[in-house]
Design goal:
By secondary structure, the chain is α/β, with parallel strands linked by helices. The protein has 17 helices and 5 strands. The protein has a 5-stranded parallel beta sheet, with helices on one face.
Length: 374
Amino acid sequence: MYFRDIIGQEDVKRQLIASAQKRIVPHARIFYEQHGAGAFPLALAYARYLNCREPSDDDACGHCPSCLKYDELAHPDLHFMFPIVKNDRNKKETCDDYLPQWREMVKGQVYFDLRHWLDAMDAGNTQVLIYSRESDVLIRKFSLRIYEANYRILLVWLPEKLHPTCANKLLKIIEEPPPNTVILMVTEEPGMILGTIQSRAQHLNIRAIQTGDMQSALIRREGLEPEAALQIARLSGGSYLRAMEAISVSEENAFFLERFKEVMRHSWARNVKGMRQLSDLLAGIGRERQKAFLAYCQFLVRENFVYRFQSPEINYMNSSEAGFALNFASYINERNVSDLVDELSKAELHISQNVNAKMVFFDLSLHITVLIRR
């Protein structure tokens, strides 16, 4: 991944390049973003640029020994930490055990999210974690000398998934970093990261991709006509991943939309039997998909509220979602929109805390029966 491959974010690119050129390189940075804005590609391109032997004023050279190794994600001074599914049967206990799958995924699609990684691991919808065992691997790696690079890079994807033991070991390294060591963390939930890690790292907010940049990328990469590219760029809300979903109208998105309809219909009709059956269904899709579904529900509630103002330029639903909103939007108003989003957000939090999913979804449906009639 090079800076030139990243969609938009020109101000962040300039900031990172200027930092490297002046040798003002913080030993720890947290890149935090909205979903699909490009924080991981930026962190990886920055790591490449720091270690490039012949960098230009705007990007890495692409032909030096360091760049060639970065192309394969196999530089000896580039280390990754990411959440995994522990598999005792196959003796997969650390990130290094999953490096082949990780490299294959990142080389194929550097814009990705947790669902893509779960698919790459063939992990279904299992909860993932950066396990405590990883701290031992981390200490061993950092006890070695730098092989050949200007900087040893540790790129931590989703540091909010760190086991407390591993988080505390990482904190000690951040507090007393070895020479020429840079730790880059990429997150969508900075508030979930250990507070002492947050306070010792420089924060970099990666904003949503601008509509014009997204449109240009869709024309160039996907071969869309300008008008279609503009429509999808608006629907994406600044997320390249959401733009890809809008193009493909993914099965996941269709599944979530149908379940959202069922939640609202059962709650409006006070159909307790239907609520229970739907809670059983949703309890079986896995924690990560449950959280993704609840985040999607929050998005739809907000968009249905905006839909009532008849202002297409500020509405970001696809055609299927907008078709449902035609009749449903009237039920979302200023008296219930905030409380509905709060209940969905609370349910998402409870799912992440491993509360019984059947109870969470059934309780959520009961609360919606009251709110939807306001």
